[in-house]
Structures
1.
Amino acid sequence: MIPRGRAASLKRQLAVATAVVLAVLGVLLAGGASLLFERIQGRVMEARIDADAERVLAAVRRGPEAPYLDQARLDAAYSRPLSGQYFVIRFGDTQWRSRSLWDSELPTVAATGTFVHAPGPGDQQLLLRTREFRRFGQSFAITVASDYGPLVREFRRGLYTFTILWAVALAATLVALNVWLGRALRPLAVARRQVAEIQSGTRQNLDDDAPLELAPLIRQINALLSETRHALSRSRHAMANLGHALKTPLAVLYNLIERDDIRRNAELHGALLAQLEQLSQRIGRELGQSQGGAASGVGEPFVASRDLPAVIDALRRAHRRDLAVELVLDEDATLPVERVDLLEVLGNLLDNAWKWAASRIQVSVAGQGAQWFIQVDDDGPGIADPAQRQQALLRGYRLDESVAGQGLGLAIAADIVAAYRGDLALDHSALGGLSVRISLPRQGGLAKSDFAS
Amino acid sequence: MRLLLVEDSVALADELLLRLRAEGYACDWLVDGRDALRAPFDESYDIAVLDLGLPGVNGLDILREWRTAELALPVLVLTARNGWSERIEGLEAGADDYLGKPFHPDELVLRLRALIRRSHGSEAAPLLRVNGLALDEARQCVRAEDGEVPLTGGEFALLRYFMLHPGRVLSRWQLAEHLYDLESERNSNVIEVHVSHLRDKLGKDIIATRRGQGYVFCGLSE
């Protein structure tokens, strides 16, 4: 399994890409809006100031002696102190100021006709312009100023709201993306669980009702599985056929050397018999190994509650010895080992136990953590010497020569267990005899999925 | 003891027949599975040795068919396929014993002896003891307190059959059927001669004659 930290995560990549795109888009939008606002606001303000200047000019009336300012014609804002609307009218030596200016001054403007930004009373930001008008034969310089601060503040508030909404939308998008992606990847998690089931032997193929994008992969994997199965079964058959084909000639040879003319020559008979034993033990051992798929996980699994009683029944019939056999099984114990292989293991172990047991045998199958534990105990003589126990597992060593059989049972069982990366150990049994303890990894198993978070 | 051997390897069958006949079995040998299907219904066999890889009909199918027809014949399956899954399949099909190839001929003889004893309800002791008589099947002689009484092959085969059916009336025809294979000439006089020899060697009362019916094994009933 790849450590999650370093592994490229589709989800994270998509989340980062989405966040970047949305953030850039947000900044561009906000920037564009600001630019637009500034331009529009500038124009509007300029137009307003021009209009104001003309209205102020219209309030300048011809008086009997001199021009006067008709207050009634002026906007009320010019009378409210610091209202943000100001004017100054200069003609000759006279200067009229709007009452709103109170005791502050408008900045004196050098050039006429240009718009000028200037700080006003308080924190006001003023746009002002001075224009020359001729009226009643005189020249009036009218400066009109207007505070554009409120507009800017209004826009800033709008921008602020926009930014917050945008951030919320971005977060919501990321959450939604995460959820959608999790949902979209769920078929992968399902497929992964099914592969684990195939490995543990509880399933043969992946379900092919996967989403459109995944279906070809699933089909490909199924094809691969079936090909592997075929190849395995072919090579297994070839191996078995060879072994079995050799057995009948071997049986003939065993019979031939018992003929009187060979028996009479004890030395020759002994040498021939020794070679024949070697041949048949080797074949027996190799066939024992080639029986199953050795952890390929493509065959029929071992179902303890179905298969163990069959082995015991076979032994009961073969030995015709009345032994008390106690089975202690986990409910629904299905082991990720090919049935043929575990039958071979348990058949050999139980056969051995049957030969030696005084009256009882105990078999237990239990799953614990990541392991399956199988234990076969008998109340026979056992093997007292630990060194001899080791010997019993060695290839071709005949410990039980006195009892019919090839004496390979324990060794064949150990071979098969080793092929599944398991462990077989011999020990002293609580029943008094030999205890064979096997641990098998629950490889594959139904491990937790990495896709769904 | 009449034995049916179904084996398609000629070389192996030759050797087995040699050994089994020396052990006092009247053997018939078949190669083809189709012949084997009918054989035990046509002849009275006491035991069958059945190979599984046969031409014609598979050995397991033969066995299943025999058992379906409620044939009680003890069957020893002799096969190269002796993995445990195959063994279980064989026993489930109705085999009484299962011997994997290659095997030592002594092993086969021992298994056959045990199987015949079991099918007649005797225990698996080294000597066959019935009514005070002890038969050593390995050495084909009778063990007496004062030593051994040697037997010829014919006498041994006859005595063994008697001892496996103690107290039962066995006709000459019946005896001939179980003691001679299809190839031998069945001459009931031979049986008469063997019975007379057995009486000479072991005592007059060991086998009683039931006129018109046959013989009954009585043993040494003191």
2.
Amino acid sequence: MIHPQVKPVPTRYRNPLSKFKVRRSKACQSCLTCVEVCPHGVHWAASGKPQFPREHLCHGFACQGQDYYCVDRCPNGALSVLLNPVYELLGDRRWTADLILSTWHMAETGRPPTNGLEYKIGDSGGGFDRIEFVFPEGGGLKVDPVGVSTAISLNRRNDGRPRLEIPIPVYGGGMSYGSVSLATMLSRIQAFAAWGSYCSTGEGGFPDELITYSDHIITQVATGLFGVREETIQRVPIVEFKYAQGAKPGLGGHLLGDKVTASVARMREAVAGSALFSPFPFHSVYSVEDHKKHIDWIKQINPRALVSVKVSTPTDVDMVAIGSYYAGAHIIHLDGSYGGTGAAPDIAKKNIAMPIEYAIPKVHRFLVEEGVRDEMTLIVSGGLRTAYDAAKAIALGADGVVTGTADMVALECVRCHNCESGRGCPRGIATTDPQLSTMIDRTWGTQRIINLFSAWREQLADILARLGLSSVTELVGRTDCLRHLDYENDLHG
Amino acid sequence: MPKKYHLETSPTPARHLAPGPSSILDWEEGCRKCHRCVRWQCPYGVYLHRDVDPFSLADTADSLCKHCFQCVQSCPMRLVSQAVNPEYTRLGDDYWTPDVLSRIYYQAETGLIPVSGAGYGGPFTGPGFDAMWTDMSEIVRPTRDGIHGREYISTAVDLGRKPEFVRIEPGGGWSETDACFVESPLPFILGLPQGRRLSPPVVSALAGAAEEMRAFCLIPYKYLNDLPKFSADFTALHLNREQLDLDPADFRRFPLVQADEADGVEAWVKRLKNSNPGQIVMVRLPFGPGVQERLEPLIQAGADIFHLWADAHGRQPGLDGPDEAKPFLKEMLREIHMTLVDLGLRDRVTLLVSGGLALAEHTAKAIVCGADAVVLDLALWAALECRLCPDCLDRRVCPVELETVPLDWAVRRLKNLMGAWRNQLLEVLGAMGLREIRRLRGEVGRAMFFEQLEEESFAPIFGWRKGQSLK
């Protein structure tokens, strides 16, 4: 497959947020020395006058001591560089300011940043943030990254249903119409379609605007059964059963009344302005047998569909996974406890169920021991932020990953956590407010997400090439390629 | 159908402006006076409601701002910026962080549970309670009927000595073994923090809130005469060491009486039991090495409840050094719980814990580790806007004027916090598939511990954890 083209897509705001601030004082004589010396394109001029510096391109203090350091080269001492105070307010321990800024950079340029931003790990102090790859001695590329395959198959059961290969081991997680705007939904779906991958509708129905992309849509059947109809099940290649969501395991969904606008209500066959609950659990499922009945029902209605089962990560997640195998699912999708949400009680987000890093090796190992690993596609999500997180998840035992928050960040989400309040997202992403949702142009959004995954693919191919692997499928379960910084990493010692 | 417990909450605004995480910096110099200034475009209207707080002289915009940075990113002259607010970072301490306190203020003000969008943003794990997660049950959930069944989950606990078995009389009748207990609809007892100034208005508020919630509060003996009105029915009287000689007959009207561990406390317990047979006797002990040996003799003397206390950070009291070096409540509590189980005495007594309980989840986790219920202290103070100044006892002026809290306002703030916490307990109980909190006690099977998860998932991959290779 030909990968979609990267096109530069700048921020939709006038002033990009940046790690550094470049100040120009009144002493500036417009000599334009800074424009000449800066190799990063921070300084620029129009009509002979220096303009506001492009601070997001600045390498900051890393330039100190170099002969192109604008602060030292300015003959009038008019320039100064400092850490942007806003940078210190941006992000959190999981999604650090660096991760947000570098994701924006990738969405803008399609390449990982080169200005010193940490784009591989966050600052959570555990899990992925303490695990790193061990590359073979000598470094460098062991195989040519151009020939490396990042494709995976979503159906490994040989049951006569389509194999559905995706060229990147990533598809889009469920974000419902209602929790996000139609423009956001379409941006994601169009981007995943351009990549030849899939994107889930979440539990909020299947707006008509999506029908064009049906071949790349996963439709969700969740406990509230909002917007689930026979025809929506029949028009898609993958149907996802959502048992639980990592951010709020065991609690069900909750769309606050403010976000239930007339169009959302119509889609969900509900009343505008009244909060909507998806109950927990499926009241028709109290055993693996009940679960199989559900899957059989979908398979009967749509003979070409694959069935994915999305669950969160309780202690017995391995038993749930094997149950799904025997019930006939093609994909078992684990959503870890630090995963995204449009609204969840903070107590649930922090405390209920285990982080995905623990669940992956546990389930992978169990499926191997049970002799069914080769027939299942193990997909994971819940707090995966970077291409490196995705690669580590695969090395721990997953086949591929699902993203959600990373796509939102590509659309310039700042993780202010206010998706749920009042009119919804102030940046127009997770909102159905008629005014706020015009802030996203879907062509802009689509290309931003295409670019992000282009940068991810490049990094994945690079990791594989450095490990000497020619396909991402060879990385699955290769825990010997990983090291945990808090461990001795010596199994024989 | 039995009547369900309901805790009424009502919005109760703060009396003092609490600092927000950031300060807005907007300069006038160089301003072009655009026709549509970015500040008036704020989706939350922060700049329209902006004022100077007359008490703290702080900019109210700093507390209203929700950090979407649109103004910062849109001003054509780049004149709007934001920075970390030092007033905010100075709130509380390492354990009672600005974030923890802000959450309490929010809950006490609104009675709502904190809900937010986007995933958890905190550290992967942490010391103390942050090194455990509660479990959920994925598919098979016979105990609960979805979100609408939440009102069927009980948070009631028994305080005191419950009947252990039923005795069949020779004549065919039956009787229970001696028991004395009360039921509290909440697993929270309203207590008093150590090292903080107490005042009659605050103690009155605790008593008032306890009565309205039909829960219990601890009232020190010396305040009895200062309280304008309170109901003895919801009071646990606290006696200090000097007050053990008082005549027990004088406080028969209180369902519970607590005394501190001291020499001769067993004799006091016996005397009280003889004088007031139906009264529930609590002994408060600090967590520490000697506690294990004290449990059995105190039970023999007649103690019904142990109230084990840790310091304000949930650590063993009386030790020097950094917090990380001191034993934490959850491990100490699990040990005591198991000791009582091994002695066959666990159901003879009620275990209460206090210290370091700052979030609703801490209650659930303490109960998982073996407590029947918790005694709250600093969290209640924070509900009344306490900023946790480190020098509370030496300070002349309380920045939030705790000594003059209006009774009605304070009662509502306390009820709001307890209501929000109770609702959060319902969330985790629901996720666990438990229908009552009594069944959560000591249920470590419904929790996952950091050490256990690391060992199960990571040890087979990465070997020994650093520093633990000899274990």
3.
Amino acid sequence: MAALKGPGDRPGPPPTGPEPAPTSAGGYRAMDPRAVRATLGPPFAHAAVDPLVLEPPTIPLAPAPRAAGLGNLGGVSPSGDGPAGSVLRPASTGRGALESGIVLVDGEPVHARLVGRAGVRATLEIGQGDAIERHAVLLVEPPDAPAAPDGVRRREVVVGGWRVEVELESERRAALRERASQGRQAAVRGGPFEVRAIIPGRVVSLSIVAGDDVVAGQQLLVVEAMKMQNELRAPRDGHIDRVAVRAGETIEVGDLLLVIT
Amino acid sequence: MATSRSESRASLRKDGPGRRPPFRRVLIANRGEIAVRIIRACRELGIDAVAVYSDADASASHVRLADAAVRIGPAPPAESYLRIDAIVEAALASGAQAVHPGYGFLAERAAFARAVELAGLVFVGPPSTAIAALGDKLQARRTARDVGVPVVPGTLEPAPVDRPDQVAEIIAEAERIGFPMLVKAAAGGGGRGMRRVAGPAELPAALAAGSREAASAFGDGSVYLEREITPTRHIEVQLLGDVNGRVVALGERDCSLQRRHQKLVEEAPAPGLTTDERRALHDMAVRVASAAGLRNAATAEFLRSPDGAFYFLEVNTRLQVEHGVTELVTGIDIVCEQLRLAAGEPLAPAVLAAAERAAEPAGHAIEVRLSAEDPGRDFAPTPGRATRWRMPAGPGVRVDTGLEEGERVPPEYDNLVAKLMVHAGGRDAAIDRLIRSLDETEIAGIQTTLPFHRFVAGHPSFRAGRLSTDWVGEHWDGAAEFRGAARAAQLAGGLEALEDGIHDRPIGRPAAGGPAVGRAVPNPDGRWSRSGREAVVDRWPR
């Protein structure tokens, strides 16, 4: 598994504020909306294996990597030394997106693809050329497992006789969930606390301005989504440090709404 | 009580003239793969096979394959497969003439053999007297010494336990034998009652503890001392004996790859022995067995020290789990021979011829035990349902199993789910065949020892024949192997999810064709209006 890097070197999500412009070097890296997070299922917690984030390959728009002679189809070079500063955009969508055989694993390009999918059988190819590793895998829907939460796909993956339960989830969704649970802790602990949108919609009205003191349960703002007016109330007592949205603004899931200190 | 389906089958069977089955009907007092194995031998010999089963096994393979099946009790072994009275009663009620015990459960209980004999039935195995004599390891050691077979250095009489007046004496004896040593139970097996002693100070406590454990496990607290030979190879000799007292050896097996005294991989012949060494080893085994009055099938176990010396360890008076590798190399069906020998027939000419050739074996066979255990978690048991179960096939491959796809491995019994055996012209070819077979094996739903066996088969030191009972501890890092596989599994699952587009629908936005837009419905739980924070926490799974 030489082609797979260890976890832990992935840049984290942005600290605050609206999503910054995507950059390719350091700090926050724009995550492809199709990115998938693969986590070991609960029975495998003992193994302490970190989650893996997979993204479809991104291809540079300019300048074209002439040296490789691959035009725009070659994807990011596996050594990661592609043209610096070039704008990245997701490759074409659909199954063809993975035909290049390159996938970003925790942000690093890795040659890996799944070939010969037939029923539950498939072959995982890692690496390229003479160094290619092939693993026969079984991708089984666990029959006895309790129903997965909405948006989470469970798979029993058998590799080399090892049975591994993997949970697959959209990285965006997983990050949001994580932020929610961190936020919950922050709400209890005190300190700056970001209130983020959990549904998309339009801000109808704001009941507070920056500098106000609020008490837990006090109405903060109203969001209209799917023709429903939803009140957002303060999760705890505090001081409105900053309001990041205006009335009439359209918001997406995960957008910062305001900060309570 | 017994549901008999034998009549219809018997009419279909074409017994050739002069081929009389050794018995008309035999009861198999076991379950799982070994019960299936014995039923197959019965069918080939034209014997009606009667199975017994507990409630956990009502639909198991051995019940389906048998001509008749008798329920003997609930799932716990003590209330079913270990009940001597229920099994003897089942044998009598079903009209069986003989009882085959398989291995494990009651196979080496002299009391069981005696109960079968007293009921007027034939016990397919050594006589109860031989089982008793060889089951007492101290007595077996004395027998070996009497016929000039070297035993592992140690004591030949029970060691004094809780006798302060004799402590100095036993420590002096221990110093003479040499440390480190093992305290072993005379009635023991499977490592119970066994204690490792590194120095004289630990000895009195180890004797007391070993004796206590032996007394509770076997009802006999006798313990003895034996020097620990390390590193060592575990090599055993397959024996067959007839009613005339003639005993022959069918060759040896190397069973060195063990974990906590549980064998994991066995092969025949033992690699690296010369013809003379084989001949000497087989001769020692035959001498001990003959002196003990052995009949039917048994196995004499030896340790081989690094200097090449053999030491007698014990005799197992039953069919071994790993008998199949000897069958593949010799071409002798040991279970069929057991049944013929139990019926009083002399050793068959084919067996005698195989015994003649035993020191110069042609071909090589390897067995791996696929068990429902997690080799990444110290071989912890992993009972469950095998949702996928595809065993290898092709030239030189034999699979003995009682499990089928979709069936459960019950938690009450042994974890062995299949024995994969390969046979080829030489050891290298057999290892290649083993690797190929393991690659073909597909199991899902339960973790098995398959990854461990793949590791062994592909390891250079195994191919080089550098075997010892320390091999597993020295080479196997299950947790690390699992982590490597987990990364590949995450990658495979992730690639599949990317290809399938599990989240084509952006988060939080209704799917196309989802809930109708435009109709105001009250918030069903009002969580959002209660608190945005709570809603986030509640809505997103933790």
